[in-house]
Amino acid sequence: MARSEKVIVGPGRPWDIVMVCAIATVAALLPALLPSSPLAWFFGFAAVFYCPGYAIAAALLPGRLEMLSRSFVPHQERTLTITMLERSAIAVGLSATTVALASTIMTRGLVELNSLTVGVTIIAATFIASAVAVYRRSRLPPGDQFAIVYRPSERLPFNRRESAVAAMVLVAVMVFGVVASSGLTADPSGLPYSEFEVTGADGQLDHLPSILRPGQQAVVDVTVSNHLGRAADYTLMISLSDSMAAAPFDPSQPVSLSPGQGRSTTFTLEDEASHRQRLTFSIDRPGEWTVFLRLIDAGGSETLTLWIPITVR
User: Fold this and answer.
1) Three-state DSSP string of 5-17
2) What is the structure's pLDDT at 280?
3) Average pLDDT of span 123-133
4) Beta pairing, strands 262-269 & 211-212
5) Distance (Å, rounded) from C-alpha 154 to C-alpha 26?
6) Could you read off the pLDDT of 42-81 as tens digits, one per residue?
7) 10 Å Cβ neighbour count for 128?
8) Separation of alpha carbons 142 and 259, rounded Å
9) CA-CA distances (angstroms) from residue 284 to 240, 241, 254, 312?
10) Each residue of 246-285: pLDDT tens digit?
11) How far apart are CA 58 and CA 293, in angstroms?
12) Using an 8 Å Cβ cutoff, are 193 and 227 in contact?
C-alpha cells in the first residue's frame, strides 16, 4: 500500500459498522428529543432503508473478495471484488426486505405494529447483524478483510470553470436542503381545517362497539380539534340515518337512538383548542344499523361524517 493511501475501514477499524449502529441509535432517540426536526426524518429514513441491510450484508460478506465465478469450459475459478456501491445497493434491498418481513409478522397479531416495535426491531436487527459482521471479519486474515482505502487523486486542482460548476452544485444542494426542511416542518394542509375523531371508551380505534343487545348501552369518545384560525360554533349530531333533522340532547346523559330523527348538541371551540366528549347511546331494535356521527361548523358550513356499523341482536 502506498504511503499516501489511508485506510478508513479495515482490520481493527470497523468504522462502517459503528456508523450504522450510531445512525440507528440516533434515529431512535431523535423523535423523543426533536420530534419536528428534519433530522428525525433523515436519520429515520436511513435507519429503516439502509442500516439493517448494510449490517446484514457485512455479516454475509465480511471479506474483500466475495463472489466466486466458475466457468466449466475451460474449468476456471475466480473471485470478484464487491464494491462499496454494490454493497450499498444490497443494503437497501435487504433493509426493505427485513422491514417488510418484520411488519408482516407483526400484523399477524404476534406483536402490535407501532413505531416502538418497529424501532426495536430495526435496532435489534442492526446490532445483532453488526456483531456477527465484526466477528466474521476478525476471523479472516487482515489482507482479506473488507476495507475502504482513501487514495488521493493525482489530478491537478479544479480550474476556474470547474470550480464555478462545483460551487453552483453546492449552492443548489444547500437551497434544496433549506426548501426540503421548510416543507417537512410546514403545516401539511396549508388550509384551515377541523379534526374529527371517534374511538372506543378506552381511546382505541379498534375497540369501537360493533355488537350490542337491544337496549344495551355503548360508549364512544369523540374528539374535535379546531384549526380554522378562528373560534367556531360546532354542532355534533348522532343518528341512525342520513337525515339532518335532530332534536337537542344532553351529551352527559345516555341517549336512545331510533330510525328517523337524530340527536344534536352544540359547543364553541376556540382556535387551536380541542374538545373531547363521551357519548353513551343504545339501540332498542335488533338489526344491522349504522350510527352516523356528524360535526357541523355553522360559520363555514363544513360537515364531517364518521360512521360506526353495529349489529343489534
Assistant:
1) CEEEEECCECHHH
2) 92
3) 93
4) unpaired
5) 37
6) 888 888 889 999 999 999 888 876 544 444 455 555 555 6
7) 14
8) 80
9) 12, 15, 13, 8
10) 888 888 899 888 887 788 889 998 988 999 999 999 988 8
11) 54
12) yes
Distances (CA, A) of 230 to 189, 227, 233: 16, 8, 10
Q: 18 is written with which cell numbers?
A: 459503528
Is the pLDDT at 178 greater than 60? The verdict is: no
Q: What is the pLDDT of residue 301?
A: 66
Please tell me the distance from the alpha carbon of residue 184 to that of residue 142, in angstroms, as a whole number: 45
Distance CA 239, CA 200 (A): 17
CATH 2.60.40.10 fits domain 193-312:
yes
Q: Which residue has the higher pLDDT, 290 or 187?
A: 290
Domain edges within the chain: 6-154+161-185, 193-312
Maximum CA pair distance of the chain?
A: 91
pLDDT at position 22 over 90: yes
CA distances for 186 relative to 1, 36, 37, 225, 273, angstroms: 51, 10, 11, 18, 19
| Separation CA 165–CA 124 (nearest Å) | 43
What CA–CA distance (Å, rounded) separates 103 from 120? 12
